[in-house]
TrEMBL record:
Record-linked InterPro entries: PEBP, PEBP-like_sf, YbhB_YbcL/LppC-like
Domain of life: Bacteria
Descriptive protein name: YbhB/YbcL family Raf kinase inhibitor-like protein
Pfam families noted in UniProt: PBP
Length: 169
C-alpha cells in the first residue's frame, strides 16, 4: 500500500493546509484539510483509518505529540482536499486542540482537521493510514485510543507519508 497527496510540493505541504492559510476556525486553527490517495491496496480491505501527527511538536508542547487529524471508516481510497469540513464519507476523531493543555476547543470543533502551525522551525508531519478488514464501531468525536482499541486484530497493512510544513510565526 502506498499513500500520495497532491497537497505536497517539494517535500512540503502547501500553505493552504496550515497556519499560512486563510481558512481558520473561530479559534484560529487551520481547517482546510489535506487530500490523500491510497494506492496498491491489498485484498480484503473494508475500510481505512488515518492519523496525521507531528512528532516535532513534542519539543514545543513539552511532552506530547500533536494529533492534527484522525479519521476512520473511510471506504474509498481517496480523500479530497477540505473534505474534513464537508464529507460524510468517514467519521472524525478528536485532534489535540481539544486538550486543556492546548487550545481547549470544544469536542465538536476539535473533531475535524486541525492544520499545521509549527513553532520554532519547520516540522515533519506523518500521515499514517491503516487498511482494515472491518468497519469500526465509532462515531464522530472518538478519541485516538478508541481508534487503536478497535483497530487491534483488524489491521491488514499500513503505510505512511511524511512531509514538512514551514514554520509559522
Amino acid at each position: 500500500m502506498k499513500i500520495t497527496s497532491t497537497g505536497i510540493e517539494n517535500g512540503y505541504f502547501k500553505d493552504i493546509f496550515g497556519g499560512h492559510s486563510r481558512y481558520m476556525n473561530e479559534n484560529q486553527m487551520p481547517t482546510y484539510s489535506i487530500p490523500l490517495k491510497i494506492l496498491d491496496t491489498p485484498q480484503g480491505v473494508q475500510s481505512y483509518a488515518a492519523v496525521l501527527y507531528d512528532l516535532d511538536a513534542y519539543e514545543v508542547t513539552k511532552g506530547f505529540i500533536w494529533i492534527h487529524w484522525v479519521l476512520a471508516n473511510l471506504t474509498m481510497p481517496e480523500v479530497l482536499e477540505n473534505a474534513s469540513q464537508t464529507s460524510v464519507a468517514f467519521v472524525q476523531g478528536v485532534n489535540s486542540s481539544h486538550s486543556p493543555m492546548a487550545y481547549n476547543q470544544d469536542k465538536g470543533t476539535a473533531s475535524h482537521y486541525g492544520g499545521m502551525k509549527p513553532r520554532g522551525r519547520d516540522h515533519n508531519y506523518v500521515l499514517k493510514v491503516y487498511a482494515l478488514d472491518t468497519i469500526l464501531d465509532l462515531e464522530s468525536g472518538f478519541y485516538l485510543n478508541q481508534l487503536y482499541d478497535q483497530m487491534e486484530e483488524h489491521i491488514i497493512t499500513t503505510a505512511k507519508l511524511t512531509a514538512k510544513y514551514r514554520q509559522y510565526h
